[in-house]
Design brief:
Elements (H helix, E strand, L loop, with lengths): L2 H7 L2 E8 L5 E6 L3 E4 L2 E7 L2 H8 L2 E8 L6 E12 L2 H7 L6 H7 L2 E13 L10
Antiparallel strand pairs: 1-2, 1-5, 3-4, 4-7, 5-6, 6-7
Protein name: Pyridoxamine 5''-phosphate oxidase
InterPro entries: Split_barrel_FMN-bd (IPR012349)
């Protein structure tokens, strides 16, 4: 699987799961990631629970359910590499834009980069090889 091709061509719904240092789990809807290499992804996130959890525990899981009938998609096991608060970079990657006032009211944004440690099919748990 080529992650860049997959996430640029396939539409669907994404859910990110994180947990705090005590293992308390949270899930949140996230759009398709920004692919930054063979095994690196980035997500734009606000300073909410998912971001807070990643300050305590750098592991996350991202489930992507493809649009259409049935249950096709992937599960990505992620390790946080780093994050940036460079608003110019974040703005250049943003797919949705709101008014500056509304954007500011929503809070600070971060670009969080991850290494993809493992990819499994959505159903069946078969390993997927990243090209």
């Amino acid at each position: 699987m080529n992650l860049e091709t997959y996430f640029s061509e396939i539409k669907g719904i994404g859910v990110m799961a994180t947990s705090d240092k005590n293992g308390v789990v949270d899930t949140a809807i996230y759009s398709r990631p920004h692919v930054q290499g063979k095994d690196e992804l980035a997500f734009i996130m606000r300073d909410r629970l998912t971001h807070k959890n990643l300050q305590e525990n750098n592991h996350a899981s991202y489930l992507f359910l493809e649009d259409g009938q049935g249950y096709s998609g992937v599960r990505l096991f992620l390790s946080k590499i780093d994050e940036s608060s460079d608003q110019e970079l974040i703005s250049s990657l943003s797919r949705r834009h709101s008014s500056p006032e509304n954007d500011k009211q929503q809070g600070e944004k971060f670009l969080v980069r991850f290494r993809v440690e493992r990819v499994l099919t959505l159903v069946g748990g078969n390993d997927v090889i990243i090209e």
